Amino acid sequence: MSDHAKQRTVISATPQQCFDVITDFEHYPDWASDIKQATIVAYDNEGRGGDVQFRAAAMGRSTTYTLRYYYGSNPLRVAWRQIEGDITIKIEGEYEFIPINEGTETEVAYHLAADLAILVPGFVKRRAESRIMRAALEDLRKRVEVVVSS
Q: Tell me: the pLDDT tens digits for 3-43?
């Protein structure tokens, strides 16, 4: 059974600026606290990251997984699905960037579903989920706002 997490936040940037940070995979270790390395292993037909391998800290150990990314026809949505992983069976997720305040700000909707290959106590899962959500939204907000202001 998958664990699901959904959350939203507002970022003082355009959807395009948010999209640009999310798709700049090689720089994830600069701002996503648990990501230690991100490597694009395959590109899509438009030169964007298609398959991206991550090495991350997870539950006191290192984990490696590869995600395949899917893009819409505009910068308003990015989705992914795991194609390889060592402690995860499934990782699926999506960012949706919704323009607000005449496009000067963005409401970011984040959804993640994951299945672990190992049994983990509930309190450990909840702590991991909290860290993932912080990186997915709070760390993202800080990174986007730094990039926009520079």
A: 677 899 999 999 999 999 999 999 999 999 889 999 999 99
Alpha carbon distances (Å) from 18 to 10, 22, 49: 11, 6, 16
Number of domains, the chain: 1
Hey, what are 6's tokens?
A: 């959904």
Q: Residue 127 to residues 59, 75, 102, 108, 124: CA-CA distances in angstroms? A: 9, 31, 36, 22, 5
To the question of pTM greater than 0.90 for the whole model, the response is no
Q: At 47, which CATH number?
A: 3.30.530.20
Is the Cβ–Cβ distance between 92 and 80 less than 8 Å?
yes
pLDDT tens profile 104-149: 999 999 998 877 766 665 545 555 555 666 667 899 999 999 999 9
For 10, the domain range is 3-149
Q: How far apart are CA 135 and CA 106, in angstroms?
A: 17
